Amino acid sequence: MPGISAETVPSPAPRGKYPLPRLTKPKAPAGTIYRGNVGMWSWVLHRITGVAIFFFLLVHILDTALVRVSPEAYNAVIGTYKNPIMGLGEVALVAAIGLHALNGLRIILVDFWAWGTKHQKLLQWIVVILWIILLIGFVPRHLMNVFSE
Amino acid sequence: MASDVLEKKGPRAHDAVPTFTVTMIVRRFDPEVDEEPRWVDYDLEMHGTDRVLDALHKIKWEIDGSLAFRRSCAHGVCGSDAMRINGRNRLACKTLLKDLDVSQPIYVEALKGLPLEKDLIVDMEPFFDSFRDVQPFLMASSKPKDGKERLQSPEERARFDDTTKCILCAACTSSCPVFWTDGQYFGPAAIVNAHRFIFDSRDEGAQVRMDILNDKEGVWRCRTTFNCTDACPRGIQVTQAIAEVKQAIMRGKP
């Protein structure tokens, strides 16, 4: 219809007992984070540890290859690793590799063994428990070495 | 007469159900106005017997008629009203409000990973394209014996019973982290429907479907996060079905 501007169009009035809907600031404009179960989070951790291990291996291969260039340079580089920050980094490295390895075995069982698919939650917790046992065996001994030198 | 009885009884039975106030926060998007989706709050008085779908109806019918969402049967059969409720894919018609924490706001948004069209409506075409690609129909070249039925033993029928339950609501496919980042992935629902025919003793197209799914974007994309199994409103063991198809492909036969 001609002649009707935006002002003359009646806005939908609130009816009944409900107040007008409130507009809120976008708390999460991109939507909420999907609330997946342990399976999704173990996948996320598997991906993160996988990428981290890849970058470690890159550096590791480079510094090991240095021994072919000159043993003195190799010794100098390895010598710089002997400090508490690197010691803590080694704890993170073993934790990441342990989790990635155990979780990888779990994924193989889930893929190839019908029992594993059915009891995947139990397998998740077995992975966590084995991982903690692994760390209990490694971390105290390792930290004693790092901080006693 | 009958309606008299109904009218007298109706309100009383209604009042017997306790009510509570619930805040619904709906992620709304009008493609003609909004550049980005926005969250809108609604305070509603609901009953203990109400579902999330009833709350959405209340918003649409009593507060803001422009709210757009799909629903058809409203009883968990048609699979139209899958959406993300409090961060998980659910059917709005099968989720009771009282089973959620109503002391907290309830967040409702469209399925993730499919193109958003309006409010809670997503474009389902990419989802149905993958479904069509696995050729989800009986392939049989031979005539049935005695010209009537293709007989099957109860054991043969039970082999694929779980995957016959799919209602194509897309809750599984749009809960899959792989599908969010790689829209080319067939997705759990297509694999479930392939499974339904691959393991059907009457079907002759298993090899065709296994070849289709033995692809970079096929079953090997599955990372067994079990999001699909948790999301399925029909309780289909989706990840297990995908694992069975993986194994069938490696064996080379169902």
Automatic annotation (TrEMBL), chain B:
Listed cofactors: [2Fe-2S] cluster; [3Fe-4S] cluster; [4Fe-4S] cluster
Family: Belongs to the succinate dehydrogenase/fumarate reductase iron-sulfur protein family.
Catalytic activity: a menaquinone + succinate = a menaquinol + fumarate
Organism: Terrimesophilobacter mesophilus
InterPro entries assigned to the protein according to its UniProt record, in alphabetical order: 2Fe-2S_ferredoxin-like_sf, 2Fe-2S_ferredoxin-type, 4Fe4S_Fe-S-bd, 4Fe4S_Fe_S_CS, Beta-grasp_dom_sf, Helical_ferredxn, SDH/FRD_Iron-Sulfur, Succ_DH/fum_Rdtase_Fe-S
E.C. number: 1.3.5.1
SUPFAM superfamilies: 2Fe-2S ferredoxin-like, alpha-helical ferredoxin
Keywords: 2Fe-2S, 3Fe-4S, 4Fe-4S, Iron, Iron-sulfur, Metal-binding, Oxidoreductase, Tricarboxylic acid cycle
Name used for this protein in its record: Fumarate reductase iron-sulfur subunit
A single GO BP: tricarboxylic acid cycle
Superkingdom assignment: Bacteria
Entries under Pfam families matching the protein: Fer2_3, Fer4_8
UniProt keyword Transcription regulation, yes or no: no
Cofactor note: Binds 1 [2Fe-2S] cluster.
Keyword Transmembrane helix (UniProt): no
Pathway(s) it belongs to: Carbohydrate metabolism; tricarboxylic acid cycle
A GO molecular-function annotation: 4 iron, 4 sulfur cluster binding
